[in-house]
Amino acid sequence: MRDLLGREEAVTVEKALSLLLEQKLQIPSTENAGIENAYGRVLSTDVISPENLPGFNRSTMDGYAVNSTDTFGASDSMPAYLTVTGEVHMGTKPDLSLTRGAVAVIPTGGMLPDGADAVVMYEHTNRVGEDMLEVMKAVAPNENVILADEDVKEGEVILRAGQRLRPQDIGALAGLGILNIDVFKKPVVAIISTGDEVVPPGKPLAAGEVRDINSYNLTGLIIRSGGIPLKKGIISDDFDLLRATVMESMQEAQMVLISGGSSVGTRDYTSRVIDELGHPGILFHGVSIKPGKPLIGGMVNGIPFFGLPGHPAAVSVCFETFIEPLLKKISGEKRKENRVPSGRTVKAFFSRNLSSSTGREDHIRVALELRDNGLWARPILGKSGLIRTLVDADGTVIIPLNKNGIYEGETVEVNLFSECPG
Q1: For residue 367, which phi and psi values (nearest 5 degrees)?
Q2: Angle 239-252/270-277 helices, nearest 10 degrees?
Q3: Euclidean distance between CA atoms 56 and 129, whole angstroms
Q4: Per-residue pLDDT tens digits for 370-421
Q5: pTM of the predicted model, to two decimals?
Q6: What torsion do the CA atoms of 333, 336, 337, 339 make, to the nearest 10 degrees?
Q7: pLDDT, tens digit (0-9, with 9 covering 90-100), for 2-19
Q8: DSSP structure class, residue 15
Q9: Contact partners, residue 184, CB within 8 Å, separation at least 6
């Protein structure tokens, strides 16, 4: 439908995104990469754990390895008396085995010796003589212990295809001894600046000229979103030259951005070029958004095309609203069905009651869930030594040291984990 001036009427933001995302897209091929070079890359296959992690029962506290049965009923008024028979050293398998009534000194991270199933913290013990220990608090089986397969189990899917890798994900891979993974190649995005008035940044300005801002802005936005920018230079208002540059770009890139060619005017060749080069051509010309209303969106044989407004602010708005979601899709990334808002912090409702000890600042890892009534933060609970609690989390909520917990439904501020730039 056209307006009184013969222009196509603007579509809504939702409609424009729908038109773009429903198109069949060209997805880049895959390659094998070392994990040192995989930050911000997108997995092309699931990663299966080749082993248990940590691989042995280990202590989470400095204290004494014990058979928990020997501590049952222990209290300040009636301690259990046990015999210290040895010491566990870091990085080695214990050369001792505990019999009933015996304990061993153990550091945080140390491997539990045979016969032990728990650790008593130093604070709950008192050394009596050289080899006698008073235990003043009972421990349950596996208390203060991470089991051999508690973090990750052998054969478990630890990371899934379509996931963009964060620093903690790379750490999990390293912890499992996985040094190489299959990832999608980064999509190449061609940037074409148009306009007789646009000149390179290093050139002195003549009357009526402006320096090329948009290609540099777009370069940073593309890199941040995991793509590879390909600058094609500044093209004058010449249809044949623009068409040739676009055709060349289609051989090199998975997306084409034309800056400055979306306004209505006699020298607006962008729509004509897109429509002439392939199917389906122009999808929309004009979106109900400010700034950025003149945006052109199209698709040519699986390659997305955008004719961007000339104003830098409009370029940024259009990129974040329309181009970035599409760029992430053609990079192979599979976003959550209910996408988490972007930004360093977000407000959310807490999903359950959670107590905290006063006098300490608790950093609670949370996963964000978009529900009908808003954004909710679900705590990812687990021992602090488990990398999986970081892999599954979107960010953290801080409980201040003078607060004893969070109530279900309470509004909290979530500090989001940054996504690695490409």
Answers
A1: -105, 140
A2: 50
A3: 32
A4: 999 999 999 998 875 677 877 888 988 988 878 889 999 999 999 888 665 5
A5: 0.80
A6: -100
A7: 543 445 678 998 899 999
A8: H
A9: 27, 28, 29, 30, 41, 42, 43, 44, 331, 332
